[in-house]
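Regression check, nicotinamide-adenine-dinucleotide case 311:
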Amino acid sequence: MRILVTGGAGFVGSHLCERLVADGHEVVAVDNFVTGRPQNVASLRDHPRFSLVEADAIVGLPVEGRVDRVFHLASPASPIDYVELPFETLFAGSDATRNCLERALADGARFLLASTSEVYGDPAVHPQVESYWGNVNPIGPRSVYDEAKRYAEALTMAFHRYKQVETRIVRIFNTYGPRMRVNDGRVVPAFCSQAITGKPLTVFGDGLQTRSFCYVSDLVDGIIRLMESDLTEPCNLGNPSERTMLDLAQFINAHTGNAAGLTHRPLPKDDPTRRKPDISRARAHLGWAPQVEFEDGMGRTVAWFREVLEG
Ligand code: NAD
Ligand code: UDP
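Current build output:
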């Protein structure tokens, strides 16, 4: 197939492009490099079935020729990024999503939206099931991301219901792995780079808030299975193994031999207290479950950050 991936030079997008090319497809990545980098797809640069187009998906998709699939991943994704880029984040969810859906409609292509567990906000239901509508502050600092993604889901369902576009929605839970930006502010790059450089790990609040971390290759496998399934309802993808940020910090300090310990910083406003995906739908419809153990994935990730910081 000929496949368009917006945000293809980002963390998740670059791994998705590599997998799609390895599976034999032709891939066109569109990225404006606002948070991603061409180096992320360096392994594909000279591949005859890969091309990288520098463009802002909010403005349009300057890609010639029909495509069969549109994966829409373009959006700032880290809390630091989307607070620094509020309008770019809102418009990535609205205008860019619309451009991708219009393109899918025109080409008769199938469309997949990269949505997020943030649509559940600070969840009152635990673990989070897709039928839960969420607890989002619509005017808080995170709303530029959360509400943009919620709008993007609504737009996707409208194109499906009223214009018969084949659509898929993945609600991605915290994912980690090589190619996260060292300074993107998310907890895994922050803790890894602090530990490798011998600094205390910055735990926000009391560190008892939880997240569930999925290794990037598992996520990419689930995204591709979802695209090729017949599931039009949103689908959670994430690793249900839940841990506190204190546990994560202690694990990374032990793994790297960092003796500098921890330091506490204020908890950001509206930081969700807990998060864990219910993946029954993905198991039933996609035959998917995460395969990479936390210790293994984290080991590979620390090794990668070490190469970046020390190499
Ligand atoms: P990322 O910042 O590494 O990647 C996003 C990519 O989109 C970057 O390459 C960026 O330059 C590009 N981009 C942003 N706005 C653009 C625009 N207007 N036009 C063209 N390109 C644009 O983040 P990521 O972690 O790889 O996230 C990818 C997608 O997955 C995002 O939509 C994000 O919301 C979603 N997601 C990720 C996670 C996670 O844990 N990584 C969790 C939930 C949802
Ligand atoms: N966090 C932390 N220290 C950091 C960065 C983040 O303790 O240096 C916490 C943050 O408050 C949140 C969790 O780690 O509770 C996950 O944060 P991240 O930004 O990675 O993702 P999200 O909040 O979007 O799940």
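Comparison notes: The chain has a mean pLDDT of 97. The pocket of nicotinamide-adenine-dinucleotide (ligand 1) is lined by residues 6-7, 9-13, 30-36, 56-58, 73-77, 88, 92, 96, 114, 116, 172, 174-175 (CB under 6 Å). No diff flagged against the previous build.
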